[in-house]
Structures are given as structure tokens and as C-alpha cells.
Amino acid sequence: AQSVSQHNHHVILSEAASLELGCNYSYGGTVNLFWYVQYPGQHLQLLLKYFSGDPLVKGIKGFEAEFIKSKFSFNLRKPSVQWSDTAEYFCAVKDGNNRLAFGKGNQVVVIP
Amino acid sequence: DTAVSQTPKYLVTQMGNDKSIKCEQNLGHDTMYWYKQDSKKFLKIMFSYNNKELIINETVPNRFSPKSPDKAHLNLHINSLELGDSAVYFCASSPWDRDYNEQFFGPGTRLTVL
After folding, report:
1. Cβ contact, residue pair B56, A99, below 8 Å
2. Is B24 helix (H, G, I), strand (E, B) or coil?
3. Is the pLDDT of residue B109 over 80?
4. What number of CA atoms fall less than 13 Å from residue A57's CA on the CB side?
5. Engineering a disulfide at A13: which of A17, B40, B76, B94 sits with its beta carbon 3.0 to 4.6 angstroms away?
6. Mean pLDDT (chain B, rounded)
7. Contact A102 B44 (CB under 8 A)
8. What are B14-58's pLDDT values in tens digits?
């Protein structure tokens, strides 16, 4: 079974700081990659996704992620965070069997 | 115009009871899912149905039984509830396109077993 690793579970930073969240996966075949965000008390919303093509993917709210196949990574970035970015961020990988596996999430707190 | 809806939003019950959570999607998707999010926010898939047919069944106690009356609904029935069943349960749906689909999530049902 594939696994998804997210490190630094708790991230605290100030507004305007840059954010990078790491995601590594173990599946060796063709994958679809996702980042979801869960704001406090809310459901998961899709931030961005990678299926094919340009490995640098732009998402909503100024987020982007880069797929590096050789490193089995799909790291999420935002150059300048806002207080409203406080949330839990989940990386997810879908394998050829249509099975979506989630990482354990990164809890991000942005201090005004 | 809710895409994926779940009822109830909160469910508090005693150990040993039987309860159901309902999920409906109006996106015309063929595939629906149930996920469990534990107290540490870890999300794990439980079941997946495609056109009313079970396609993913992870290692879940058989006290959990999904029921899909039609492709727009996937309900989760739980028998003999245990303390460890306390969690947030998310329903999701997606088109049945293995290569290019994304999953849309419902608002979640917070189940508390006392």
C-alpha cells in the first residue's frame, strides 16, 4: 500500500512569512497528487492538483506546488501567508486503483 | 446548491447503540467514499462505491456497513458503537475517471460515543 509523508506537523509563522510544506509518497506508478486544506471546523477543500503536464501547479489563494518525480515529492508553497491561511493542510496521492491516501496533515498557525 | 451533504452534522450516542449517517451528492458523480478522521486529524478511507457497487473496502470492522440505494447516496450504518468509533466521518464523491478525477468532500459528521 502506498504511504504519504508530511513532516513538521505543527508550523507556526508570522504573517507575510513564506510557507513550504513537504510531501513525499511511496507509490512508484502513475499518480495524481492533491493538496487539500481544512479550515477550523470546516470540511476539506481542494487547493490544487497535479495530473500531468507542467510539474509546477498553481492553486487557489496564491498556493503552488511542485511535482518532482525523481524525489517522489509534491511540496506546497506560498510566498507570503496571511492570518486566514491558518488551517490544516493535507497532501493526498491517488494511485492507479483510484485509491486516495492522505498524509497526516500539517497544522499551520499564522500569527497576525 | 450544496454539492455533497451529510446528516447529521453532530451525533452523540451511547456505547452499544446503532446509528446511521447519510450522504447525498448532487454532482452527478458515479463514485462515493467514506473517510474517517481521528482525533489526530488523520484521514483514512473506509469504503468506496461506484454506481452502487462496492469497490474499496479497507480494513474496517464489520460493524460498519455502507449502503448505496442509488449512485447519489451512500449511507453509513454503524452497529454496536464503541468508544473508538468517535471521530469525524467525511463523505466524498468523484467522477469515475481513474486518471483525472478529484474528490469533493462533505462537511463531515462528528460522532461522539459516550
Report:
1. yes
2. strand
3. yes
4. 23
5. A17
6. 90
7. yes
8. 999 999 999 999 999 989 999 999 888 888 889 888 887 887 777
Contact A49 B102 (CB under 8 A): yes
Residues A37-84 have pLDDT tens digits of 999 888 899 999 998 899 999 999 999 999 999 999 999 999 999 999
Q: What distance in Å separates residue A18's CA from the closest CA in chain B?
A: 24
Please tell me what DSSP assigns to residue B102: -
Q: Do B45 and A46 touch (CB under 8 A)?
A: no
**b/e per residue A96-107 (b: at least 16 CB within 10 A):** eebbbbbbbbbb
- Chain B residues inside the 8 Å CB shell of A94: 101
List the alpha helices (DSSP H) in B20-93. Answer: none
**Are residues B71 and B52 in contact, defined by beta-carbon separation less than 8 angstroms?**
yes
Amino acid, res. B86? S
Chain A, nearest residue to B105 by Cα? A44
At B93-107, the pLDDT tens digits run 988 766 667 889 999
